[in-house]
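Possible regression after last week's pipeline update?

I re-ran a chain I had predicted before the update to compare outputs. Posting the input and the new output here so someone can diff against the archived version. Not blocking, just want to make sure nothing changed silently.
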Amino acid sequence: MSTPLLASLLSDLSNDVGQPDFYWQVAVVTACFALAWLLSRVLRRGVTSKETDSSVVKIGVESFTRVLSPALAMTFILIAKMILGKWQHTHLLSLLFPIIGSLALIRFAFYVVRRTFARDGYIGNFLAVFEKLFAGLVWLGVVLHFTGLGQELFTTLDEVIIPIGHNKVSLLTILQAITSVIVTLVVAMWASAALEARLMMLPTTHTSLKVVLSRVGRAILILLAILISLSLVGLDLTVLSVFGGALGVGLGFGLQKITSSYVSGFIILLDRSMSIGDTISVDKFSGRVTQINTRYTVLKGVDGSEAVIPNEMLVSTPVQNYSLSDTAVAVWTDLTVDYATDMEALLPILAETAGKVERVVEDPAPAANLMKFGADGFEVRVSFWIRDLENGKSSVLSGVNRALWQVLQERKVNLPYANRVVTIINSPAKET
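New output (post-update):
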């Protein structure tokens, strides 16, 4: 059995202690860390202090903010190892290189995972456990590398054969495929998140088109990630034909509603029948559109409640969009005045009064109209327009009614109401 790498490095390193070679390595390592810290600080300050015109440079530096110091230190140590190794031993550099590289890998993975799954800044319990598990696995790999057990473990896993249909795949290949799929999927979702953020910043593009492009981009990136990861480990992609057939049968019978919602989501985004921020009403739900996903749409009502509407419903049932081409919505209130009222003088005053209430727009202007001659008096309708239906109609309608009531009281306009006479007929008492 060969000597473990760690024992060999420690033995060689102990022989170097007290020799000039050792002090040269300590000085080089100190210089590498200092230079990495200084350069990362300069780059970070340069990006955060001013706006750069190059989006590629800005995204690249910001992406490696968390791993900049260990990545630069690892790079400088590798360069120093190559140069210094021409004249002397570099056992200390060989020992530190995988340790610093592992730290850089852990920090980079943390950044990618948080950027992808916790963009709002909140880290849930699952992400916290995943980060600890990933860090443990990385440090376990470092230990296996130094102890020399990694190669033996790989050989043992490669000897375990698992039959899959007419093919036989080793356990090592399956684990490599799972690892590569997870890594490429996370990277693909990270890239899709960066693409979505970039698309949402475009000022002249319609919101629906931005969402469509981001969703299509994410789907393409995820598909490419799976295909590339499986090809990297040498798996024959024809093996997936069985799963593809089963998936097709499932989509045809058991997943019709889900598939219809996904297709409807792309239809909604492409035909621009509604956009984020529109106020709509469908079935018994109404509110402002806050999210348009590929499977469902979220409506936020005036009372703060959120309704999750399948996209299939938005395509197959009539939808009332209050802000499709114009955000102005008509609101009205009805009242009845006495027949002795001077209508020619009252109607303009009612319209003018409604126009002074907050949230009532000037164009189209409010109007007061005599609708018909009722049983108790003139039936009048005061109509006006608002452009912020997402804030509700109750408050503005109440404000208009209060203003109209004040004007009617000042002008002593009578609001008649039906008189009801109740006659009680006393029946003769029954003899006992």
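Follow-up from reviewer: compared with the archived run. The mean pLDDT is 76. Marking as no regression found.
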